[in-house]
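Input:
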Amino acid sequence: MFYLKKYQKNSMKIIMSKNYFQVIRAGIFTTFQDEGRKNLYHIGIPFSGAMDKRNYLLSNKLIGNKINSPALEFAYQGPLLKYFGNKINIAVTGDVNFKIKKKDIIIDGNCYQSLNLENGDEVDILSTNKSVYGYLAIGGQIDLKYQWSSCSTNTKATIGANDGKKLENKQVVNISKLNNQSVERKLNYINTKIENIRIIKGTNFDYFSDKGKKIFLEKEFIVSKLTDRMGMRLDGPKIENVIDTNIKSEGLIKGAIQVPADGNPIVMLSDHGTIGGYPKIGVVISADYDKLVQLSPGSKIKFKQVDLSSAENLFKLYDLETQNLISQIE
Amino acid sequence: MIKNILNLGDAALYCDFGKEVNRETNTQVIRYFKSIQRENITSINNLSPSYNKLIISFDLKKTNFKDLKKLIENLDITNEDDLENKKIEVPVCCDENFALDIVRLEKKLNLKREKIYENFFSKEFFCYMTGFIAGMPFLGDLTGNMRAKRLETPRVKVPKGSVALTEQFANIYTFESPGGWNVIGNSPLTIFDSSKEASPNLINPGDIVLFKEISKKQYENYNE
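Output:
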């Protein structure tokens, strides 16, 4: 059904299938992601997976993929890809500025809408607008390495798709099988931005002075440039510790907010180290995680405390809304 | 036994086994960890055993804190458990190019390097937990005169294979990573192998580790 073309380049053997993308520009941090891997914290491997889960799921649904198929996740500036092969469906989600370049025209791309690419077309993902992550889903089966039932690339542990590395210039992305359907699918959806991130008090909340607690819950912080898939560092007023700036090292989870000796909070994100020794002042609620990761460096952030039962209800709402959006795409 | 179960965020149980960091407490943690693992509870999606804590992450779509807490509290934890202590020998080369912090450590501990290495290589270590980065073992316990604080400014890059000390513990960097432990040598042994999905870690909680000094030449010719 498809043939393989082989050629030598820079002594590296590139094998291309009949349908493939040539990576002309890889973008700042482009990786393959799915829902991530479970039950590996105890050996030091975090969940990984798509940072903004809702947008990831929507991208797959828009092109008729299985909902947990691999998609390309990009940050800030995305990739420029040239497509070779039979007509293929793609969809972009997030708040993303992108273009489709055909033989003689350039079209402004619309997010939340399936699009066709033909042989020689290019998709140029210019930037995410005042956000961080966007998703490009591809209507077919991508040739990827799975480890522990997930293709999610974890660059720190070099595991997952693409030999555990981010996308690189000049590489190819092979599509082994194209989806049949080419019905156009569309969704009316606007990403809303929030500055208030809701948290639950952490297990070391009382390590901090009354003034420190007040600062944490009432003052504004700024997302620093030292933010990636592993963690988000925040700048702002210092949070004073009155007990101990170290705890006995213990497990960490996604969304946990650690405050090291310098008084600046760090929020653990999807590729976080699994063990940590700094006091945890709070944990971001599950319902707000997708919004949190979209806050770009320089953004303001304010934490608002909620109790456990509110957090559980807010998650139900978040999940219901996601399911609702998914079912609107048909 | 678990002293207390708190919630860590809305999707994790924080099980506290007491303040002390010792083998007894840690063995309890590992027993719970293994027993829960065996139960295959589908709503649980991660377990993080550490010195004296066990964090149980769960899928908020499938359960909630209250229900899972009840389930864990009523779980049968078998005591005469199969905590097999595997013994593992780890070769370490202490050539100056590898022992990045030995000079600093001599000062911190007020011990000559010969003595530091003598103490280090004559000790049997117990693996309390693995993690931070994939496969990194946390090994204890160093005696009182061998305990040093972390570097004041952590290194941005600690080389892969580095063997390092801090407080009562030793560890091995399975990847190049940022870190603040005092590096005293380097091991050519593969501690984490992601191609072995069933058992990627050479050293697991409960295992006993013995370090063995090797020369630069042995290091270079090392063949697993």
